[in-house]
Amino acid sequence: MKAPNEIKYSVTVGGTTVSDSREIVYAPLFFGGRAAELRIAPVLPEGNIASCTAGIKAPCGGNIFMNGYQTWTFCPEYTKKSRIRGLHGVPKPIVNAFSLDRYGDYHFVDYPNKKGRLHGISYCYFREGDEYLLIASLDETNGYTLFDLDANSGELTIRRDAVGLRVGGGFEAFSLFIAEGSEDAVFDAWFKAMDIKPITREPISGYSSWYNRYQNISEQSIYEDLAGCAKVMHGGELFQIDDGWETKVGDWLECDKAKFPNGMKTAADAIHAKGYKAGLWLAPFVAQKDSELVRKHHDWLYLHEDRPWSCGSNWGGFFSLDIDNPEVIEYLEKVFSRVFDEWGFDLVKLDFLYGAAPFGSEKETRAGRMIRAMKLLRRLCGKHAILGCGVPVMPAFGLVEYCRISCDVSLDWDDKPWMRMMHRERVSTRQAMGNTVFRRQLNGRAYLSDPDVFFLRDSNMKLTKAQKLDLARLNALMGGVFLTSDNMGDYDGEKLKEYREVSSLRGRKVTHVSFDGKTVNVSYDAGGADGSISFKL
What we know:
Strand 1 (6-13) and strand 2 (16-23) form a beta hairpin. The strands form six sheets. Strands 26-25-24-23-17-16-15-27 form an eight-stranded parallel β-sheet. By secondary structure, the protein is an alpha+beta fold.
């Protein structure tokens, strides 16, 4: 595989363009391969950035990975014949009615929708067999690193998402890491260059209420689920209460009294009494349109063109909160103090985090704002564990213990045909499994990865037995979070045997991964024998 040997760059501020080229000088990696760090910081006139681009040649004869915007964004390996559709084909009235362009990067990236034209963010790689060429950002504070590839010509355009940022003097336009070698060699070297290590190496397993109950949870259902979990789970595992405990998304200081008449401390105490860690779901940077927060504190909402920014259509629609408003920060401080200090929860699953940073400003890029939001959450949660979800991938590196790397799984394989026309962040077991495979390198380097839950149950299921077992095995092998959303009290002897079998794969070595553009094959050490998982994308 031929690594690039030159990079050309151009930065325009106002009417002045500064451009140049630089030779890429590689140094050998300790475990084989070679790498280069490129920090390009031209001296710029004072003004607002109009464009910031660079170009290099990339090898496109093999498999190509382009990382997606946030945790839910589907991003498998591609070939030079692939295309990424974006929202092309979805009628504009539907996009607008359901704010479909808010879940990903569609509102600030134009997807070309042509064969061989591929888009990614923060990092990408080119693979020929077991040899990798990794091209990645070292720091996104000055703007997301956007990759636009013309695989037919091999031209890779790199753009810094910093348009409108006020600059003057030295400005780090690009901070890139380029490495070629084995998978482990290039990804280990990238994280070493960033000086990022996972906060914890302790994986978690247990139960999540979401796909078992969805929002139909209550104090009584928690007691029932705890009784069922006792049949399977051990002390120290996680029992997570997901969405549905609150009255409205955004109103976090009190629970829904009709569902939890004795409050959330009673629920956390009940979980602890069984010997489990207690987890609670929140979406701290957003609020649904009919929440008390929106009704009473309309000035807390993030405004774009003098209108509250809608983040999507969940819960009838929801808005972003403005983290530059001191009252919002004060409110979140109260929320997390209540969750941890008063109610006694051990871990929070923090969802829809992308809502914190839809835009940048003259003073701060969109990515810089997202990083600031993640550092805020780290401060508010202290030593309590965070499971991040719905967050742009790289801003979460090293700031959360656990992080989703896929979209939500579903009770079937790939949702309804018309839903397949929607955004890349849609619900899909097929797409979730694909992301678990192709973002596997983040697990144990950026954080411990959450591939979402698995199922073994038969009720309300359209997944086949083989699909359920492949999902569970893949989660065990490539994730640091291993949760089910079954009513474990219903497990019979066969299901208990299946649970123990898939659980035994946690920590086992994946020996080989291959993808031919249609079928993913994962081989692994099954404990004295070879095991395999195969599924079509």
